């Protein structure tokens, strides 16, 4: 089978196969640069060819619908390796090169992968990981041939529910959690996101996100769908924002999707006093809260750019909603999470799992008792009837329609009642890898559709409806935080710290104002030794920025560590008698 015959058959494949983006774009823009790093450039034609070679190589190993580990430097070559894994009918697991041996070992053990691809820069470390499968060098793989017949057979058997990647996030037990996403998940995500970002063949992305995070999907697959171009921004430039601006201008980058903390580097170091981005037209941010004070500085520096707040979770294929900031002065101290992407729904539930009704603008509220008489008192089983002028889901004008919600005795009726943010739709991931119980806990039946089997994901984020009818993020339900764009379970850091000889008890606190993780502990070991232990055991972004040794941790009546008291202690300069003279930063 030659390339032309193969392409003709591919054109009739399942439209939700993610690789069809690559095939369509390579046909339209074969010689256009797709991905560019400091050391290499791949056109779409070159990317397709290398993808098929790698796919053929893996297929020859008789591995199908299994995890394949990618241990490479971020580069166009790594992109072709990721796509090559999908091409072979398997799903990729991109590994963090800076991850500790302990965490890498966890992932290797959990996946039980049979094959790993490395490059010349990572080969030595890859061989030291104790991987029991086969390790292959990228440069050797791409000297092979393309087996079109084998690839076509794989494509014909591929289902849209087949996984394409497995990404690992922080876990509360100390073991990373794996989340799988399918062809359908990613395709539906990119179809909606591309419209939000206003992507086309003239889009030039500046990539910041590591390829082992789902945040990189925004750059990778929108580039493939639209025939755009992505530059991999050198990591070192994020420590020198003025030089980074010069880089953006030199390459005429017009679209960026950064974590909020990456954007605040520019403003904290006053970079806009020395240079300003000339070509940015879309600036998207997410992963954590972006302070309005920093956003205002960005909007002043780039007055013609479109600013978009993206919200979502790894369990929902990255991002699920967006909010275009048109007037920062109208916002209620923070940025709303915005509208859901197509085929996505977002709503709030209370502690009992009941949906919290959205209070829309132009809504009349009347409180009545069981007999239908108006009342201003809080009664048991009281109903709140809402006379709305808009539909809750579509916000389209409707004839007068009544909605009701039962309010339990003792609860107050507020405009901004808080609840857990829940997400449903086609972006919902396949679940946690080899963790059925955790999947059942977080992926639950949709309370809005009792008669249907569709699931939703409980994010653990707390939100509320503002007076403008938008959902605002209020914080975390548990001790999971978002720091430097990474989602981290504080319990994982605590578990690591409490293993240290000389630490009697330890607890983590996250200072949102200073964006720093703090580890408080009782014990005999010195803070600098604790810091050194963390550096050897945890990923760099998880290492506490401050280690504080206390004479005694505050306790609640039941004997548990009083986390709230630690927060008060931290923010009350006059109340620090428990802190010993030495601590480490």
UniProtKB/TrEMBL annotation:
InterPro entries: AMP-bd_C_sf, AMP-binding_CS, AMP-dep_synth/lig_dom, ANL_N_sf. One of its GO terms (cellular component) is cytoplasm. Pfam families: AMP-binding. Residues 24-356 form the AMP-dependent synthetase/ligase domain. GO terms for biological process: amino acid activation for nonribosomal peptide biosynthetic process; secondary metabolite biosynthetic process. One of its GO terms (molecular function) is phosphopantetheine binding. This is AMP-binding enzyme. The lineage of its organism: Bacteria, Bacillati, Bacillota, Clostridia, Lachnospirales.
